[in-house]
Amino acid sequence: MKTIALYLVTALAEIIGCYLPWLWFKQNGSLWLLLPAAISLAAFAWLLTLHDAASGRVYAAYGGVYIYVAILWLWTVDGIRPSSWDVTGVIVALIGMSIIAFQPH
């Protein structure tokens, strides 16, 4: 459970760190959005170091969780309901993530 929670927080930090510059650039947001964006991306990089597995395995497994969080972001922040294709893609990605992250040691 700790691993999943850490992946979720890591994905959220990355998405926020990328979303805020997008708001600044595409939506004429305040330049001040770049400061919390930088902090969020620094937190993202730091959070990746907290995982126990080898870095390549962490990055590979993290991708599946990132896809899940990105689709949740699409729904909650962008206000776009995920399609059945989105949901299917998330399921496939999470299955792949589980195979990588929870393999026997």
Structural features:
single chain, mainly alpha, 4 helices, flat
Oligomer: single chain
The shape, in one word, is flat
End-to-end Cα distance: 17 Å
Number of helices: 4
Number of domains: 1
Unreliable parts = none
Structural class: mainly alpha
Q: What gyration radius follows from the Cα positions, in whole Å?
A: 15 Å
N-to-C SSE string, H for helix and E for strand: HHHH
Q: Helix amount, in percent?
A: over 70%
Q: Kindly state the mean pLDDT as a whole number? A: 91
User: What summary fits the major beta sheet?
Assistant: none
- Which percent range describes the beta-strand content? under 5%
Number of E strands: 0
3D structure, described in words:
It is a single chain. With 105 residues, this protein is mainly alpha-helical. It has one domain (2-101). It contains 4 helices and no strands. The protein has helices at residues 2-26, 34-48, 55-76, 84-101. Helix 1 runs antiparallel to helix 2 and helix 1 crosses helix 3 (55-76). The radius of gyration is 15 Å and the shape is flat. The two termini are 17 Å apart.
Topology readout:
Elements (H helix, E strand, L loop, with lengths): L1 H25 L7 H15 L6 H22 L7 H18 L4
Brief characterization of the structure:
This protein is mainly alpha-helical and 105 residues long.
